[in-house]
Each structure stands twice: as C-alpha cells, then as structure tokens.
Amino acid sequence: MRTTHRLFALATAGVLGASLTACGSDSATTETDGGGPITVSATDTGCEVATTTVNAGTSVFAISNKGQKVTEFYVYAAGDRVMAEVENIAPGLSRNLHVELPAGTYETACKPGMIGKGIRGPLTVEGSAAPLTDDAALLAATESYQRYVKSQTAALLEKTTEFVQAVKDGKIDEAKALFPVARTYWERIEPVAEIFGDLDPRIDGREEVTEEGLTFGGFHRIEKDLWETKDISKSGPIADQLLTDVKEIVTKANAEKLSPLQLANGAKALLDEVASGKITGEEDRYSHTDLWDFNANIEGSKAAIASLRPVLEERDPELVKTLDTEFANVDTALSAHRSGDGWKLHTDLTEADLKTLSDAINALAEPISKVAAVVSGK
Amino acid sequence: MTPLSRRRALTLAGVGAAGLSLAADRGLIGKSDEIPFLGQYQAGIVTPAQDRLHFVALDVTTRDRDRLIKLLKDWTAAAARMTAGRDAGEIGAVAGIPEAPPDDTGEALGLPPAHLTITIGFGPALFDRFGLSAQRPAALEELPRFTGDTLDAALSGGDIAIQACADDPQVAVHAVRNLIRIGMGAVSVRWSQLGFGRTSSTSTGQATPRNLFGFKDGTRNLKAEETDALRDHLWVQPGDGPEWLTGGSYLVTRKIRMLIETWDRSSLTEQETIVGRYKGSGAPLGTSGEFDEVDFDSVGADGQPLLPATSHVRLAHPDTNSGARMLRRGYNFVDGSDGLGRLNAGLFFIAYQRDPRTAFIPVQRSLAARDEMNEYLRHVSSALFACPPGLSGPEDYWGRALFG
C-alpha cells in the first residue's frame, strides 16, 4: 500500500460541499429533504449522520468537519470491508462521498485524527435498486476482471510462499530475488486488496504509516531486514504473518463481487500509485526495485481497462484510442529501463529519466480519470 | 450546457443559503475587474500591472502537429473563460456528474476575475520542429551569455511561455494549474515562478512600486499611454520579420536572485550611489522629483558626477543605450530560503520589446559589464519568447497565424 490511498472503494470527493459550508447552515437540510446528500456532521468526539436508512443504489454523503482535527469518513460493510471513504477532510471543510450500496447492513465511521476504529454508527440499505451490472456488457466486464484477479492471486500466493520460505531458510540472495517478483502480483491488483481495510497496511505498509502500538511488518519490513539491516535471522515470525495475511486477502479477493465503477476507479488508482510512490522511489526505499512495482501497476491498470473495453468501445471509442496511445507511450518510456528479466533500480535513473516517466503517466492518467464517468453511463 | 460563471455556479450550489453568495455577487457589480481577452494586442502587456504573477515555461513533448494545434485551441478557449471569471472547462468545477473528475479544479470558485490576464509566447526551440523553421524570426535567438551569468539550464528557456497575472494570487495560480492540466500529454512543465508585488508600473495611473532592494523600480518604464513610443519600442511592426508576429512583442524573462542580507548591511549612501536614485523619493541623484530628467552632467563639490558612472540608472538609461526602451513588468519573488538560511529572494524580471537585439541585449551587456549592483545580484534563469498579437474573435486561437 502507499499511504492511505483507497480510491478503489468508489470514493468520489466533491468540492460542492465547500461552497455549502461557506454559504451557511440551512442548505444541507433543504437538500436532504429533496433527496439530496445525507449530511454528516463530524466533530472531534461525534459523528452525526442525518439518516441511518437509505435506499439501495447510489448515496451521497456530505461530510462537514466541524472539529479541530483532520478527519476521514468511511462506509464499512461487514468485516470492516471499505465500501467507500473520503480522506483528509481538514477542519472547517466539507466533502461529498458517492457510494453505490446494495441492500444490507453497513456501518458509517468518522475518524478524527485519522486513526483508530473511528466513531461508528449503523447504516441500513433497503430495497434492491438495480446496480450497473444489469447491463450484460458490464457484467461481462466484471466477470472478466474477476478472472484476472483470480489468476493474480494464485500467483501471489505461490510466490509469497516461496519468498517466505527463503526468508525463513536464511537464504538472503534468493529472498532478494523473489521480493520484486512476489510483489508484482500484489501490485497488479492492489486496489482490490485495499478494499479489505487493515489487511493492506499489514501486508504492504511502510514504516512511517505503521500505527502506534502495532509492529512494522509485511513486505517492507522484510525488505528492510534484507537490504538495510542485512539480518533476517529474526524475520521468521514476520514472514509467517505475511503469508497468513496474504492467504486471507487472496480468499477475500476471490470472493469479492466487483462493480464496473470499481474497475474504472481501480485503473486510475493504480496510476496514482505510480505517480505518488513509484516515481519518487518511496515504495521500495531499501531495495530500490520500484520499477517492478511501477510496471505491475501499469499492467494492472491495463487489465482493468481491458475488461471494460467492449463497454468503452461502444460508448466512447475516441477515449479508447487515446488510452491505447498513452498506454503505448508509457510502455515505451518504461522499456528503456529494462534490465535482463527485470528492471533497473530506481537509484540508477536520472532526474531526466524520471521526468519522462512522470510526463507519460500524467498523459495517461488524465484520460483514464474520465473512464468512470463513461462506465456510469451519464 | 451553458457555461456558468464561477459566481453563478456558487449561487446555484448554495441552494437554501444563497444570501451570502448573492451578497458577494452584488459586491462585484459595477467593479470592472475583468480585462478583455480579445483585442489587437495580447492582454497582460500594457495592461496596468496586476499585483500577482504565476509564470510557467513548458516544453512541447508531442511530435504531433495536430495535437499541438488542438491544445492551443483548447487553451485559448479555457483562457477566454477564466479571464472572464468562469471555470476552465465548459462544465465547471461542481456542475458535472459525480463519477467524473471536474473539468475545473475549483479553487477559484467564488472569486472575481481579479484583472486576470493570460499571455502566451513561443520559444526559439519550438521552431526547429513542426516545420516552422521559416517562420522563426531572426530576433528569436537564444540570448547571448552575459558576463557574470550563473544560469541554471533547468530554470531557463522553454518552448512555450504562459504568463498569468491577477490581483489575487489564487486566481493566477488557478489559471496556470488548469492550463497545465489541459496540456498533459502534449506539453510538460519545464519551470515555473510565482511573483508578488509588481515591480513596475505600466500605466501613468499607477504609482511606482518598490523592489526588494527597497527602491522604486520602473519609473521611466514604457507606459500604456505613450502610443508612439509603444509603436517604436514595444510592438513588432509590419516588415520587422515574419508576418505572424506583427502586433506581437518579444518577452525576456530573467530570474535575478538578490543577495539581500549583504545589501541590507550596506549604507544608505552606498545603496543610493549604486542605484542612482534617492531611496525615499525615487528622484535621480542630483534632482528633486521622481520623474525629473536624469542629470548626467552635474558634478558635486568633490568634482565627481552626482550620478556615478557605474550607477544602475545611468547604465540602463535610454540615453546611454542608443534610445533603447522596454516595457518592464517584473515581480518580486521569495522562494523560501536556501540551505544557509538566506532568503531565496529577488526580482523575476519581465520585459517586452519590439526587438531584443536593440533593447534588452545591449542594455544587459552594459549592465553586466559595469553595474555596481552586480555585487548583490545573481542571474539564475533566462528565457526569450515571441508573443503573437492579440486574438481577433472567438474563432481565433493562440498561434493560428503561425500554424495556420
């Protein structure tokens, strides 16, 4: 995982709310009466959601942070599965969150200070408003992507098992070689993994985002042991826990029903991962194997778009052409840094190399950010 | 849909609490804070200098001529909207569908046009591509190296320049940010600069401001009201070069770091001797009023000229540079501080002229060689651009005469 990015979970933060706040107090009530956003009044100690019952389909929450701390707002399904979230709501600001919810029981949560379990409340979703997947082409898209997820999770489990074994056997060189390979399968489907709350940070969290009281574990802890501390004699329990967590996430990911909108948002989220973490070398700061992850993110993004392709071809062929061109440009820019079966280290790239890659990612990410709207059919 | 102005969008968004935004709207009525985007000349040159600047130099990364032309059209449309106080895109920051990223970034919602002008220029290297070699004016050559230059290549040059000036920094930043976003995939940011506190007046209606040395700067600037002088010194005239640039102007930018800590420790007399003006009134040494003619000849009791031979005013004056004049439009900058705790501050020099070969280049040669002020200056960035004339109507676009 990167920092606290979980865009895959349908989150769409709007700025509409900001003007509502600026304009005064009564507007929110008026809009709720008219079927508009559900207001959420977040403070440092409270989380007042205007209603605890909504109809199935798309709901919009308008969250106002009236506290002193930066806050977040989540909609959780059973088992703390993130359905949607909006992050980094500064004191005094308002944000909107759009989420597509099938009938069922959920929980809402505000997280003042952005840590802990948050202030929870119940949310019941009634009825059975038709989801986008009614459209056969969209259904085919999600089924296609689900197959991709299945193939990647199988490989992830296999390679992580090998990696963990090498670590436990004290085989440093073998473990080092397996590290970027196992991560490739993770990075391709990372937005799916990010749906499952705490599992993602446990597996892929970096040292600075490890919450107080918790142990820094997962891939990056072992990376540090391998490359920086150069001592894996005590890494066994960490490696065992990593495999346990990976097994759990593989099971969950394979069982997860994804919506077409999640595919679209996931394709974009993967490019955000590249832009914010891989270009900068923050992701694999000890091993500098960021380009493996970079490439895997691009492949994952491409796979999600590929699943949606029939729908996009039908609705916006120009956009598909643009995406093809820009994906090809990214591949060209990246292929200059191939090294054997893998990739050059991040530290071997010049500033100019990174700028070229950054430009290519920006050029691709702008059109990809338009896919969700096309998929939603509006 | 019909494009909404930012003010209107805000009013619509604030259903049930429209009172406050209406009040803000009313506050704008009767205030002429919108500068016309169309006209014979580009806005942002003789326009009374606004208080804030966001300047960006971009490299063109696409090799597809049609894509570049489309970008110039898209930019022109966005610039027309934003200078009128509207959102960058046709839909706007908040009127779109929830699943799509807004086509305006939103930070200017509720803000007035704030005299926003957006001015474009083309750099020398652009002409080597896209089959434009024949259209490259002879005067559009990389500037020569001047004595003492300590230029950072990464902060210099560029294929396209965009100058956004406004009285509200957020409005200027909003304009540049949205244009950069529109350009992704076709252009890449090379360098950019924020500026505050205009350091020149470009109209007789404006008081002369001060630069970070604390001196009035730009007293003898070319001014919007000097029609004949503008023709002779500012606007490219028919026959000067390729026809597409007639009615345009050459833009020189220099980022000039000021070593202000050592400057601040120099005596008032030394400061005034270096500049050649009194610090309080701005009058040339030996005279009494800011706008008095510079007195080159008078000598003091010690037999030395009242205006030293190495003073900035004397060396930069048109009379010592074959009559060369420019329209200066620079801004102060403070880019935080450096590793030694010194303010990274100075002047982002901007000058428009009819021909740099008879204006900026000879004047800077003279200054670089002899100006006592150089002890306190470091030129770190340099660029030259050819700015096309203004846009004739809604169907016109930046660079049409060049690419058309």
From TrEMBL, chain A:
InterPro entries: Cupredoxin, EfeM/EfeO_iron_uptake, EfeO_Cupredoxin, Imelysin-like, Imelysin-like_EfeO/Algp7, Imelysin_sf, Iron_uptake_EfeM/EfeO. Gene3D superfamilies: Cupredoxins - blue copper proteins, M75 peptidase, HXXE motif. Residues 1-24 form the signal peptide. Keywords: Lipoprotein, Signal. Residues 31-125 form the EfeO-type cupredoxin-like domain. It comes from the Bacteria. PROSITE patterns: PROKAR_LIPOPROTEIN. CDD domains: Imelysin-like_EfeO (cd14656). This is Lipoprotein. It comes from Actinoplanes couchii. The gene is ycdO.
From TrEMBL, chain B:
Residues 208-390 form the Dyp-type peroxidase C-terminal domain. The keyword Cell cycle does not apply. Residues 1-23 form the signal peptide. Binds 1 heme b (iron(II)-protoporphyrin IX) group non-covalently per subunit. It comes from the Bacteria. It is found in: Cell envelope. This is Deferrochelatase. It comes from Actinoplanes couchii. The lineage of its organism: Bacteria, Bacillati, Actinomycetota, Actinomycetes, Micromonosporales.
